[in-house]
Design a protein that fits this description.
The protein is an alpha/beta fold and 422 residues long. The protein has two domains: 183 residues, D-Maltodextrin-Binding Protein, domain 2 (3-Layer(aba) Sandwich), CATH 3.40.190.10; 200 residues, D-Maltodextrin-Binding Protein, domain 2 (3-Layer(aba) Sandwich), CATH 3.40.190.10. It has 19 helices and 13 strands. Strands 1, 2, 3, 6, 7, 8, 9, 10, 11, 12 and 13 form an eleven-stranded mixed sheet that branches. Strands 4-5 form a two-stranded antiparallel ribbon. A hairpin with a 2-residue loop joins strand 4 and strand 5.
Length: 422
């Protein structure tokens, strides 16, 4: 072999070795999330910022279907490397992953500024299973009423400063709906006093937020989820009567975004859903026209909050790097405030909300979030939601009474495993 040939071979081998070393040292974080998440959360900007501090890290994105749990469960159970970070499912569903030993916990990184006491307790508690934090809260919401100040002013329901006077109880709230509802000369409703999100996505949160506000607990006297108390009957009567008298819109029975659309188009005056809508709708109708109105009783008794889960599977190839990205960027101040300003979404660290306490909206949201409870994490949560949705929808279609509705729910959930986990 000539000297030149030997040099060429040596250089080729060296280049191959360097290429091999680069391939080994390169780290690609795989992230999967529900498709809508990419439209609202600046994940790619977060990745770019992370790369500045961690040169050589690459990102691979994939989209999961809405509430897509079963395919991930199957893949992770077979130890398939699908993602380093998965942003999908509620803690009630995430508990199933943890029960099968498929999740890394975050205990080792919840120190210093990320220590547990620095998170909104209601959100972090929902991500805690068997005493350890196995998910980080994201897309965290508090159930409340959101009101149109301009419509309320027309109905004489505002104070001297133009703010809606919170109704003291459900009887007074019903009077508000009567004053806010507008009907034409034929009796057809052209503007509803209220719109409630009764879609499968929100059904249990809407129901139990009312129960919590009324009773100070979502459980009955025997410690079971409450589908039997006088307050449960009162809540369903309130809803059914409102629908029957044309005071409450039923748009959510056919479209989960119906209530939001009702508010944005001026078809409704008060929305019963999550707090984030106050910001989102404000971008359309003007933030000066929007206000958080606590569910009657919730300022004292609390409301229901919920969150999506940001999880790291045990099949992840870069779990420690994934934890760094989650805390350094997906819980950074810029990331949190961007979400709050554009969409009204919350993460979980208290400091992000405390920085905006001069805004009446965020002051109220902080107080409600700090006095909120999460639904218990159970094996058959999804089945319970299906039953609740079907029966309450039947009631809202005037096919059965509130008492019959609750009885049918109790009968059908009796065989389910609704024992709290974690």
């Amino acid at each position: 072999m000539s000297r030149r040939a030997r040099v060429v071979v040596a250089l080729s081998v060296l280049l191959m070795m360097l290429s091999s070393l680069g391939a080994v040292s390169a780290q690609t974080l795989k992230v999967t999330a529900e498709a809508w998440y990419y439209n609202k959360y600046k994940l790619e900007e977060a990745a770019a910022r992370f790369q500045e501090d961690h040169p050589g890290v690459e990102f691979e994105w994939s989209k999961a279907g809405d509430f897509e749990v079963a395919p991930l469960m199957l893949a992770w159970s077979r130890d398939r490397y699908v993602a380093d970070i998965a942003i999908v499912a509620s803690p009630s569903e995430a508990v199933a992953f943890q029960a099968r030993g498929l999740l890394h916990d975050f205990e080792d990184v919840l120190v210093g500024k990320y220590a547990k006491e620095n998170w909104l307790e209601g959100f972090l508690e929902q991500c805690t299973m068997d005493g350890k934090v196995y998910a980080i809260p994201t897309d965290a919401e508090v159930m409340t009423l959101v009101g149109r100040r301009d419509f309320a002013a027309e109905a004489g329901l505002t104070d001297a400063d133009g703010y809606i006077i919170p109704p003291k109880d459900f009887d007074e709230l019903y009077e508000y709906l009567q004053k806010l509802t507008v009907k034409d000369e034929t009796g057809r409703t052209v503007r509803y006093g209220m719109t409630v999100n009764w879609s499968p996505e929100y059904m249990c949160y809407a129901y139990f937020s009312g129960i919590q506000a009324m009773r100070g607990t979502i459980y009955d006297d025997e410690g079971n989820l409450d589908f039997s108390s006088p307050e449960a009957v009162e809540l369903l009567r309130f809803w059914q009567r409102g629908v029957d008298e044309g005071l409450i819109s039923t748009s959510s029975l056919v479209e989960h975004s119906g209530p939001r659309n009702d508010m944005q188009s001026g078809l409704a005056c008060i929305l019963w859903e999550d707090h984030a809508r106050v910001i989102e709708i404000g971008h359309v109708v003007g933030p000066e026209n929007m206000q958080i109105v606590p569910i009657p009783g919730s300022e004292e008794n609390g409301t229901v909050s919920y969150t999506m889960s940001l999880m790291i599977p045990t099949s992840a190839e870069h779990p420690e790097l994934a934890k760094q990205f989650v805390l350094e960027q997906l819980n950074a101040e810029w990331f949190a405030h961007d979400l709050m300003d554009r969409w009204g979404k919350l993460l979980g660290l208290k400091e992000h909300v405390e920085a905006k306490m001069d805004d009446p909206i965020w002051k109220t949201v902080f107080q409600l979030a700090d006095n909120s409870v999460g639904l218990p994490k159970t094996v058959d949560h999804a089945k319970m939601v299906d039953i609740m949705t079907a029966e309450i929808h039947n009631m809202l279609k005037m096919q059965q009474t509130p008492e019959e509705t609750l009885a049918r729910i109790r009968e059908q959930i009796a065989p389910l495993n609704l024992e709290p986990l974690g």
